[in-house]
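Repro:
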Amino acid sequence: MPEKINDKDIFKKCPLCSHIWVSREAFLSDSKISVIGYQVHFEELEAGLFYFNHDECGTTLALKAIVFKDLYDGPIFEERLTGSETCPGYCLKKSELRPCPNKCECAYVREILHIVKNWPKTS
């Protein structure tokens, strides 16, 4: 009989096919997981959502940005530049995955998104 996995030992479970990832690293390394978008939460940036496709079953999964915060160790700027002349508007486009070139408060989350998007795939 297979060993039962305790819910507290699960990083993420696919709501459609019930595939389980026991760690964040296993999730990000899975070749059947691809990041497809980011939905900004301007009031609380870490509550923004990263969207992933699970290519195995075709479902979309959402995880809060805070789950990946520790992957970034660079500067976090205080001023938000959204709507300014220098803002490229990336945060306003859910499927835009590029990092922001500005010293904007929102830029660090986009850097995290870039790290997640480029995570090496092994399985």
